[in-house]
Amino acid sequence: MTPVRHPDAPAPGELLGAHYGECFGCGGEQPHGLHLQARAGEGVSITAEFTVQPAHQGAPGLAHGGVLATALDETLGSLNWLLRTIAVTGRLETDFVRPVPVGTTLYLEAEVTAVAGRKIYSRATGRVGGPEGPVAVRAEALFIEVQVDHFVNHGRPEEIKAAMSDPDQIRRARAFEVNP
Ligand SMILES: CCCCCCCCCCCC(=O)SCCNC(=O)CCNC(=O)[C@H](O)C(C)(C)COP(=O)(O)OP(=O)(O)OC[C@H]1O[C@@H](n2cnc3c(N)ncnc32)[C@H](O)[C@@H]1OP(=O)(O)O
């Protein structure tokens, strides 16, 4: 089925903010996290930026592939905001096309390609040198829609409790919970 942008999705260009402060991908409270900043795009698409820090190295001076996969995963996960669903990564297939040095800003773009029941198919690219620069990484993913219970049942009680007592976190979770 063709993906449908939720009528209450953030407007194109709107900065999405972190879905969780401790998230390694987007949270502001993780000193060595990616601090990835995502914006709503047109249709069911997202743009995001992430600058590779020394803490993200694999080979000397180069980004670790797993960190780049995280950047793709996080950008793809941000598509949740446009569908207003909660979904987790089931499958993530990554191509590493060129090395990404420390200090480089990765310009990411992701879009939902199809939705079938709980299955959300998507793809993403990460470019270097600018939003129109050469592709350094790309991914295809399958996200699976879940209920909030997924996190309550599987997460650690300490973090769940802390998140539930944070009014901002509750507000974000509610925004995802209101489905069409
Ligand atoms: C509060 C705001 C927070 C918002 C939080 C947002 C967080 C975003 C963070 C970034 C994203 C992440 O890294 S999320 C973290 C990484 N991911 C995870 O931890 C997920 C771990 N996996 C799981 O919990 C589970 O396997 C699920 C939930 C993905 C699926 O389990 P399930 O619910 O029992 O569903 P299941 O019946 O198995 O699968 C449903 C359909 O999907 C298909 N399917 C499932 N997995 C796969 C797969 N790997 N490859 C192909 N197909 C698959 C099945 O064949 C089936 O198709 P059919 O028979 O219907 O055709």
From TrEMBL:
> Which Pfam families does its entry note?
4HBT (PF03061)
Query: Reaction catalysed by this chain?
Result: octanoyl-CoA + H2O = octanoate + CoA + H(+); (9Z)-octadecenoyl-CoA + H2O = (9Z)-octadecenoate + CoA + H(+); decanoyl-CoA + H2O = decanoate + CoA + H(+); tetradecanoyl-CoA + H2O = tetradecanoate + CoA + H(+)
Any one of the GO CC terms: membrane
Q: Tell me the keywords, alphabetical order.
A: Apoptosis, Cell membrane, Cell projection, Cytoplasm, Fatty acid metabolism, Hydrolase, Lipid metabolism, Membrane, Transit peptide
Please verify whether the record's keywords include Oxidoreductase. Answer: no
Q: What is the topology of this protein in the membrane according to its UniProt annotation?
A: Peripheral membrane protein
Q: A GO term (biological process) for this protein?
A: fatty acid metabolic process
Stated EC number for the protein is 3.1.2.2
Q: Which GO terms describe its molecular function?
A: hydrolase activity
Domain Thioesterase intervals: 61-126
Q: Which family does it belong to?
A: Belongs to the THEM4/THEM5 thioesterase family.
Q: What is this protein called?
A: Acyl-coenzyme A thioesterase THEM4
